[in-house]
Design goal:
22 helices; about 45% helix; 4-stranded mixed sheet; Rossmann fold
């Protein structure tokens, strides 16, 4: 996005980021020293080196001499919540000091991403002059920001009202507040999980301030243009053969993989099916409050238990709960060795083959700011997603499909025009469940983490009627997808329509223009 904004604005655009000295990708980056600033924080002055990494949009990495800051190892947020809060506040203060080093005397406009960098606004609140600042939300996560602690860290809580980081930031930032899809902007206000469970404290602060700007695609088109043109002309076999070749590459990679402690494989590589049954894939970092691996695991089990011939492959990146939090996937693969594999590590040599050779990619997100449906389609695979956030915009459901329930139809009204060709499948749990809000609260509470309960995530959440309904509806969507896979002409038509929908509907240049419409003045 920064490079696209720079091209549209025709003026310098840069990115500020912490220097995560324990993450190789950051630690080993080629960067040039620009200057050093002193950051008043926690009763002392911390020296911070400003480093520049050149690219389409230059990145300025802020490296404190005190190595207690920015110590995430697996990823930048791999920290105790209190430490992440402290580091975020320090980052905000450091950015403010670094601005005149990067561009002395410049008039800055800052786009602050989520609560972790909205701390720049708190640091700026007590200053006699401050940059123009806007907040962009990729989620509704937040952190308490008590006045006493802010004063202890040499910040000015009296200059920004509120009880949390986002509340205080929004008190001093410009209108509007951005989100990364139009639908997620609506969800933050209307969806019960967001508005009544995750972020009820933000409702009065957001309201009419929200503007959803759709992200562009996160990958380039992998399908050769000639194959798409041939399929549009009615010659589908080359496209389907291309997918079969990629699936064969994935299956070959299975035969060359040796499991280890660092690369644990859940399932049986030798027994896993090499037939032509539908192949479903799911990938991404495990966030127990967002991703939905548990929903997918339950639906896969129900489909297989009913006698369906299907294969599933999961590529989870372990989140805060580590491998143990994904034990339900290991158990599922153990019960269905010919049908389920899971790779809780970066299986690079097999991933693209599975992604491009799969029948469908699954996105059972509990919420979804934008989503990876675009990555499935541009890699030549149809999407199945829960009708929420950006996924709802990226997948056009078949109005005749069983999974296109009244709940789905209600949500796509005004989003997808009636004549639009279907591209995949959306599902959604029943509306109007009496336990809806209580169930969302139970899901969000992650009670299974209490060792006294002796429950894994799936066993815990199956107690909630809302989760049960979600699983049932995804099972129906999987059945719809299996029926479509048996109709290769129709499958190819929908795949091409899905690719065109992503190409025509989502653009980084368009997103950049929309941001500049509000923030470029």
């Amino acid at each position: 996005m920064p490079a696209h904004v720079a091209a549209q604005a025709r003026q310098p655009v840069v990115v500020f980021t912490p220097f995560h000295h324990r993450i190789p990708k950051t630690r080993d980056v080629d960067a040039t020293w620009v200057g050093t600033v002193g950051v008043p924080f926690d009763g002392r002055t911390v020296q911070v080196h400003v480093l520049r990494h050149d690219g389409p949009a230059p990145h300025y990495l802020l490296r404190p001499e005190d190595l207690q800051f920015f110590t995430g190892t697996r990823h930048p947020y791999d920290l105790h919540p209190d430490t992440l809060y402290r580091d975020s506040l320090f980052f905000g203060a450091a950015v403010l000091q670094a601005l005149p080093v990067v561009a002395p005397g410049a008039a800055w406009t800052l786009l602050l991403q989520d609560w972790e960098s909205a701390t720049v606004a708190i640091a700026a609140a007590g200053q006699p002059a401050r940059p123009r600042m806007f907040v962009t939300l990729h989620n509704s996560y937040d952190h308490e920001a008590g006045a006493d602690q802010l004063r202890h860290w040499r910040l000015a809580p009296h200059a920004c009202q509120g009880d949390t980081v986002l509340q205080r930031a929004l008190d001093v930032c410009e209108w509007p507040v951005f989100t990364v899809s139009q639908q997620f902007a609506r969800d933050l206000i209307d969806d019960p999980y967001q508005a009544r469970v995750l972020a009820p404290h933000l409702a009065s602060w957001l309201g009419s301030r929200l503007v959803g700007i759709d992200n562009g695609p996160f990958t380039d088109l992998a399908v050769p243009a000639g194959l798409l043109a041939a399929a549009e002309a009615g010659r589908i076999q080359p496209l389907l053969a291309w997918k079969q070749d990629h699936q064969a590459t994935f299956l070959k990679a299975l035969g060359q993989l040796t499991p280890s402690v660092e690369r644990p494989v859940w399932g049986n590589l030798a027994r896993y099916g090499r037939d032509d049954s539908p192949l479903f894939v799911m990938a991404g970092r495990d966030d127990c409050r967002q991703k939905g691996y548990d929903v997918a695991a339950c639906a896969a089990e129900r489909l297989l238990a009913a006698g369906a011939k299907a294969r599933f492959v999961f590529f989870p990146i372990p989140g805060d709960e580590g491998l143990e939090g994904l034990s339900f996937l290991e158990e599922l693969a153990g019960r269905w060795p010919a049908n389920v594999l899971a790779f809780p590590f970066r299986f690079a040599e097999g991933f693209s083959g599975a992604l491009r050779g799969a029948t469908c990619g699954i996105m059972p997100s509990l919420y979804e700011p934008f989503g990876m449906a675009n990555e499935f389609y541009l890699n030549g695979t149809l999407g199945i997603g829960r009708a929420t956030g950006g996924v709802l915009q990226q997948i056009v459901p078949d109005p005749k499909a069983r999974s296109t329930s009244a709940a789905v139809r209600r949500r796509i009204t005004g989003v997808h025009a009636a004549p639009t060709l279907p591209t995949g499948f959306l599902f959604h749990e029943d509306d109007g469940l009496a336990t809806e809000v209580d169930d969302w609260q139970g899901i969000n509470a992650t009670g299974y983490l209490d060792p006294a309960l002796q429950l894994n995530r799936v066993a815990d959440r199956l107690r909630f009627p809302l989760f049960e309904s979600m699983v049932s509806e995804l099972t129906v969507a999987l059945e719809d997808a299996m029926a479509l896979a048996a109709e290769p002409d129709e499958y190819a038509q929908r795949l091409v329509a899905g690719i065109r929908h992503i190409e025509q509907g989502f653009s980084w240049d368009r997103a950049a223009q929309q941001y500049l419409r509000y923030a470029g003045g």
